[in-house]
Amino acid sequence: MSKNTGNMEAAVNFRWDDQDQSSQDAEMCKMVFCIARIDNHHALAREFSLDPEISISQLILHLYRNCGTDCAKQLLGDFVFAIWDPEKRHIYAARDFMGCQPVYYRRDGQSLIIADDIEKLIALSTAYPAPDEAYIAASLTSAFAHHERTHFANIRKIAPAHYLIASKGSCETYRYWRAEDIAERRWSDHDDCLEEFRTLLKQAIRDRLPRNGRTGVHVSGGLDCSSLAILAAEELRSENRKPPVALSWYPPPHSDHTDYEKSEYDRIFSVCEKANIEPVFTTQTAQNIRDVLRRDNRVRPLCNASYNERLVQKEAREMGVSVILSGFGGDEAASFDGRGHFQQLALTGRWLKLAKFAKASGANPLRFCVRHLISGLSDLFLSDADLKKMTDDIAWRDVPYWKALLNILNPFSRHRNLTPSKEQQKLLDEGVPYINKTFEGRVEPLPAFPPIRRTNSKSVRCQLLQWSINTARIESWAADGARFGIRYTYPLLDRRVVEFALSLPGHMFIDDNHKRIFFRQAMAPVLPHNACWEETKADPARIDPLIKSMMEAYASIGEQLKRQGTKSPKAAYIDMPRFIHDLEAEKINNRTRKGKIILAMEFLGIEDIEDIEDIEDIEDIEDIEDIEDIEDIEDIEEQ
C-alpha cells in the first residue's frame, strides 16, 4: 500500500522578481511545486542515508543537490515537481517517464505559472491565452495530440521523460529517459522470466493501492484490466481490506445479446468470480454524451474514452473509490502483440521461420514472406509522406503491398493503377474534415502522427510508448477524475514493468497460434481460461450502445444548431454549414464521415447551445443556488 505520496499546491505563479536577489547558497534550493507518488522512496532514503520518513519534497530536493538534473532519472513513480535553484537562477522541473502526472506551464518575462490542469493555470493568468491555430488545425483534420503543445499558443506541457530548465530569459526541455536505451535480456529458463514479470507487476499494483478510500478497477474481460482486477483483489484480501470496486463500461446484460456478445459477458463474470467481486455495469445514454460535450475541450481535453469513463467516475464516487487502477498502456509494452517481428525475420533472412508462421495462419508462404519483406523495406527506407501514400493506397483502394510500393517508386503509374472505384471515391469524399476552408488556407497544421515503422519488435514498442495520443488519455482522465475525487494509476506503465517488457526479445510476444503470448503465459496462473486465451478484441456489446447514444446526441445537437446556431468563437474554425447539414441521423453513422464529425463536435462543444430546459438535465450539481443568471448555464461542469 502506497504511503509515498506528496502533494503541494496544484498551481503556482512563480515570479522571478519576488526571489531574494542576495541568496546565492545552493542549499537554499526550494521546492515550489510538487505532485508525486514515489515508489522507491525508502530505497533512495537508504542509499543517501536519509530518514526513512523524509517527505517526498525533501527527498527530491536532496536528490537534486546531489545529482543535479539527473535526479528525475533516479525516481520511480508518477510525479511532477519544480525546484527553484537560487545559485543558477533557474527553475528545474521534471515529469515522470510516461507522463502519468499531467503538468502545464505558461511563461513570460516576469513569471512561470505551473499547474496540473489548464483551468487552474488560466485562473492564475492575467490574460486569457491566445489560441494555437496550428494545433487547432491539426486537431480538426485528424485524431491528434502533442506532447508539448496545447490548444493555446503560450500554454505548454513538459513532455513525458523530460525536464525543463526555465530562467527569466530562456526555457529549454531535455529528455532524461529513452526506451531505446533499454538493453535486451535473455533467460535460460522461461518460467523464471514469467515469474519475475509477475513479481514486478504485483509490486506495481501494491505501490498504487490507496491509503484512504476504496480501490477501483476496470473490468471488461480483456487481458490487461482482468489481470489487474484479480491481482488487486488478491493483494487487498491479503491486507484484510475491502475488495476493489469492479467498474465496467458495459451496460447490464440482457437476453437479446448475440452469442458473441454473451461471450463478452461470460469473460467479465469469470474474471469477477475469480476475484470474488461483483461487476458494476453502466448504461450509456445520449444525455451522458451531451453532458461530456458541455466542457470546453481546449481547457478540459476529451479523449475517446471520456464518454464511458464519465459513467464509471460517477459510480466510483458513489462507492467511495479514491484510486482507479487502469490497464491502459499494456498494449504498448507488457501485453504487446508482436508487431514488427515478421518484418524483422524477413529483413534478416530468416525465411524458414517466417514460412512456419505463414503455414500456421493458413497463408501462402511465398506471398507471406514477400509481403513482410516489402513492408519491412518500406518502413526502413521510405519517407513519412511516402509511407502514408502507400498506407492509404492499401487501406482505401484495396491495393496489394507490391503494387502500392511500385506506385511509390514509379509515381507516373499512380493515376493509371490507383484510380478509385466510385464507392471508394464516395468514401474519400465523405471523409473530408470539417475545418473552415479560409482558416485551413492561412494556417499550416502541425504534422500528423508519424507512421509506425515496423522494422523490428523493439522499435515498434519504443514508438508506441512515445505516442502522444496515449498521454492525451492520461491527461484527460486526470482532469476528469479530479472532479470526482479520483486519481488514476497505471500499473502496466510502471517503469520497472515497462523496462522489463522492453528488454524482452521480439519472438517472446508472438507464436504460431497467439499474439500477446508473453502476457498470456505470465497471466495463465491468474486469469480464467476464457479471459486469458481469447484472441478477438472486438467488444460490440459495449461499442454498439455507445455509437447509438452518440448518434442520437449528435442528431439532437444538429437540430438545435439549425434552430439557434452558436455564438462560440470556436465555430470560426469549422465549416459550420456543412457540419450542421451532416448532423442528421442517416448521415452521421458513415464509415469515413463519422470520425471527422466527432473531431469537429468535440472541439466545438455545446457550452452555449443548450436549451433552457436542459438545466433540469444537468447532473452532479450540488450548489444550484450558486447559479445566479442564465449565462451561468454555459459554465456548469460536473462539480
Could you please describe the fold and organization of this structure?
The protein is globular. β11, α6 (223-238) and β12 (245-247) form a beta-alpha-beta unit. α5 runs antiparallel to α20 (495-502), α5 (190-208) packs across α21 (517-523) and α6 (223-238) packs parallel to α7. It is an alpha/beta fold. The two termini are 29 Å apart. The strands form 3 sheets. Strands 1-3-4-5-9-10 form a 6-stranded antiparallel beta sheet, with helices on one face. Strands 13-12-11-14-15 form a 5-stranded parallel beta sheet, sandwiched between helices. It has a 4-stranded antiparallel beta sheet with strand order 2-7-6-8, covered by helices on one side.
Shape: globular
The secondary-structure class comes to alpha/beta
Q: Uncertain segments of ≥5 residues (pLDDT<50)? A: 612-639
Can you count the helices? 26
Largest beta sheet: strand ordering = 1-3-4-5-9-10
Mean pLDDT: 89
Number of strands: 15
Main sheet overview = 6 strands, antiparallel
Rg to the nearest angstrom? 26 Å
Distance between the termini: 29 Å
Beta-strand share of residues: 5-15%
**How helix-rich are the residues, as a percent range?**
40-55%
